[in-house]
Every structure is written in C-alpha cells, then in structure tokens.
Amino acid sequence: MLNEPIKTVTARSFVIRDANVDTDQIIPARFLTTTERGALAEACFHDWRFTPDGEQTDHPLNTVNREEQRILIAGDNFGCGSSREHAPWALRDFGVEAVITSRAADIFKSNALKNGLVVCEIDEAAHAALLDREDLEITVDVVNQTVTAGNITASFKLDPFARTCLIEGVDPLGYILNQSDAIARFEQETAA
Prior knowledge:
Blueprint: E1 8-16, H1 23-26, H2 46-49, E2 69-74, H3 86-94, E3 98-101, H4 106-114, E4 118-121, H5 124-131, E5 137-141, E6 146-149, E7 152-155, H6 160-168, H7 172-178, H8 180-190
Parallel strand pairs: 1-2, 2-3, 3-4
Antiparallel strand pairs: 1-5, 5-6, 6-7
C-alpha cells in the first residue's frame, strides 16, 4: 500500500493521560471483523466514547476536533496488549497522524509505522510537560526525528527502514516493489 510521504506532521494535540492503554481499548475485538481501512473511526476508543446503547458519553475524546487535533499525546506504555493491526488503522481513521509517548509497545509501534502512523517515544521530562498541556501546536519531524512544541524540543528514534518507508511514502512491500528494476538487473548479472 502506498501512502503519502510523511516528512513532518504539524497539528494541534489532544491528550490521553492513562498509562497502559491496550489495543483492546483502542479498538475492541468485536470490531476486528473488517479489513477495510477507512471504516474504523467510530470503533476507535468505542467503549470509552459510547455507552452499550450507542449513546455518546461525556469522555473528552468526543470533543476532539479531528480536523485540527491530529497528534495524540499518550500515557506511558501505549498500545500494549495483543497484536492487532486494526489499532493503528482505527487511530488513523480517527484522524491521528502521530502518537507521542514515553513508551509504546513494540508490536504496536511496528504495526503503526507500517501503516503510516508515526510513533515518537520521547524522554520522560518532555513527555510529562506535553501531558500537562492540551491543544498545543506540535511539529513531528520524521527526517530529523524531533518533536517541537513551543519551547519543548525532544528527540526520538525510529527504525531506519521504517523511517525510510515513512519519508518515501511506502510500506515495506511497496519499498521492495520500488526496487524491482534493481532486482531484475541483479538477477540478470548473476544468472550466468
């Protein structure tokens, strides 16, 4: 799947302070029946945002301006729990383009980066400062691996291959397919 290249994300933020938010909270298992991307915005944090009868709760997520607030400042250990690619899909469908946290679960981070959702693990002091402020304008710079919000600047590290894929706007398979000419040349040169 090809995405738009992601070199920077500049948007306003919203905050989920809770630590240990697992993938079942991000998208409950009963919504995992589809493989259609673009259809999971309402499932994102569904059990926080809606009652069992489908009525909207007073949870702050129901007031997020999804057009402008596209950067999530999340509590520690975000995305823990079971592996489900639907979690980053749901966040992307909800409008989230980047997640900033002090620690993200490895499998969630891997799934997110493969699906064009930038996950930034920053130091605890900068993270705590961002958690204390709502609706900041933040720039996530994928090229330089920095997060900037006013006078707060923090660095983060991305897997080099994942970073390349984000910057080029491709997933891992798309990256390989883009190398098909080089692969064909190599095969011709070594066929003899």
